[in-house]
């Protein structure tokens, strides 16, 4: 047993103390309330209006989605499955309608036989998959973090909580794709019950059909964690995992899918319906936020109408931005493969001081990105990796196209090569963002 430190705190105590002072120093609770509202407003102005938001997991939601997130139905309790006999609570007839619309829309968007709408986070969807498909001690194979893997499929996430033994899916560090020969050898040795394809850093598709053929030798399952690519899949701009042999797909509704932050799950096999739904309710979801479900249903409708054009422009913009940065001498991953087939562009910024340094410098000029592990980064590089991840979802939904990608590449180049001060670039960013405030690809 380890000793518990009396003052152990994961958060930055300077900021916590700032809050404590506000709460203690305010003459009334109403003023404390106002402080919260003010902080939200400060963020809405800065991040919402004055920044170039290039964070890959973010997307701006439509006005309809935002309205629904504060709807009355968000105060209602509706545990269980749709239909009065399947609910614990009475009074759910309109909630049943909302949830049915959401499920049927999800099935239509993802062309699946089944869908679930109750996952308040994609992370919980991954927990549901592991709970339903594995037993503690089982072997699984997943992507390591330097190749884009996410904690939800690793030892420090749901897979670890389930007690699974995690082996890396072998990746080719040059092609940035699965090394199929090495995978076949490793998989035949381990015979994993599940192979998870979950990538937070994602540039190119997976050889899913071939991987499915291999794991079928021992009835292994393929789990596609499409957190990032969900919108691209719905818009037909990425591989279609269920169609290519994945047994189940989860995804984040708030990343490229551009809906309310939460999770979804889709699958085709009738035999998986009971294991999955038994795990979702009553195990991992109870009050599942019906306001969010309504907003998710609306984002599905938006996708059916605008998804194809929206996602196409996202990928076009990402390729244009990758190319524009490459032209300016900045090291972009996948430069011999047209840079990307997704919303992401990944830079190797080692010679500019690494991802942490660069992300902070760009943020001084109102350009928001994140540091990222890239192939070659070692465990000790975790906090100061060499990569920088850029996403084009938000700037695309705000109406930017190829000419704006050239401008953004100029700003990044000016900052990295110290040709302009962050203050000067910030002025240019402010000028640019004023013309791109409207949300596109919605009714
Ligand atoms: C973001 C992400 C998740 C978690 O999704 P949330 O909706 O944030 O819970 C899971 N897997 C991958 C690969 C991700 O990138």
TrEMBL record:
InterPro entries (alphabetical): PyrdxlP-dep_Trfase, PyrdxlP-dep_Trfase_major, PyrdxlP-dep_Trfase_small, Ser_HO-MeTrfase, Ser_HO-MeTrfase-like, SHMT-like_dom
Any GO molecular function: glycine hydroxymethyltransferase activity
Keyword Secreted part of the UniProt annotation: no
Keywords: Amino-acid biosynthesis, Methyltransferase, One-carbon metabolism, Pyridoxal phosphate, Transferase
Keyword presence, Protein transport: no
Entry cofactors: pyridoxal 5'-phosphate
GO cellular component annotations of the record: cytoplasm
Record GO biological process: glycine biosynthetic process from serine; methylation; tetrahydrofolate interconversion
Family: Belongs to the SHMT family.
Protein name, per record: Serine hydroxymethyltransferase
């Amino acid at each position: 047993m380890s000793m518990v430190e009396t003052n152990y705190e994961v958060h930055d105590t300077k900021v916590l103390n700032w809050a404590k002072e506000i709460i203690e120093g305010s003459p009334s609770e109403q003023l404390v309330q106002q402080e919260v509202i003010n902080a939200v407003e400060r963020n809405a102005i800065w991040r919402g209006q004055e920044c170039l938001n290039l964070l890959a997991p973010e997307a701006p939601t439509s006005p309809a989605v935002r309205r629904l997130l504060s709807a009355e139905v968000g105060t209602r309790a509706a545990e269980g499955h749709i239909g009065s006999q399947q609910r614990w609570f009475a009074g759910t007839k309109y909630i049943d309608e909302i949830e049915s619309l959401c499920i049927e829309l999800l099935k239509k968007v993802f062309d699946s036989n089944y869908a679930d709408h109750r996952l308040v986070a994609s992370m919980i969807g991954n927990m549901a998959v592991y709970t339903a498909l594995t037993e503690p001690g089982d072997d699984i194979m997943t992507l390591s973090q330097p190749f884009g893997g996410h904690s939800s499929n690793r030892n420090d996430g749901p897979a670890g909580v389930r007690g699974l033994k995690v082996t890396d899916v072998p990746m080719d560090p040059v092609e940035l794709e699965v090394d199929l020969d090495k995978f076949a050898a490793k998989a035949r040795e381990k015979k994993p019950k599940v192979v998870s394809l979950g990538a937070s850093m994602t540039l190119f598709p997976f050889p899913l059909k071939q991987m499915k053929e291999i794991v079928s030798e021992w009835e292994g399952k393929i789990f596609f964690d499409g957190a990032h690519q969900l919108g691209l899949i719905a818009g037909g701009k990425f591989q279609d995992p269920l169609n290519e042999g994945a047994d189940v797909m989860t995804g984040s509704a708030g990343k490229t899918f551009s809906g309310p932050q939460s999770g979804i799950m889709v699958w085709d096999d009738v035999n998986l319906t009971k294991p999955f739904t038994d795990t979702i309710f009553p195990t991992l979801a109870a009050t599942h936020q019906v306001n969010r479900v309504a907003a998710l249903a609306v984002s599905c409708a938006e996708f059916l109408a605008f998804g194809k054009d929206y996602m196409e422009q996202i990928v076009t913009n990402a390729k244009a931005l990758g190319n524009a940065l490459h032209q300016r001498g900045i090291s972009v991953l996948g430069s011999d493969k047209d840079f990307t087939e997704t919303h992401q562009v990944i830079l190797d910024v080692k010679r500019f001081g690494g991802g942490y340094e660069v992300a902070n410098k760009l943020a001084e000029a109102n350009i928001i990105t994140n540091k990222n592990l890239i192939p070659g980064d070692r465990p000790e590089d975790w906090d100061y990796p060499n990569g920088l991840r850029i996403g084009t979802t938000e700037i695309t939904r705000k109406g930017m196209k190829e000419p704006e990608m050239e401008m953004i590449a100029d700003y990044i180049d000016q900052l990295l090569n110290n040709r302009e001060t962050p203050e000067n670039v910030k002025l240019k960013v402010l000028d640019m963002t004023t013309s791109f405030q409207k949300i596109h690809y919605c009714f």
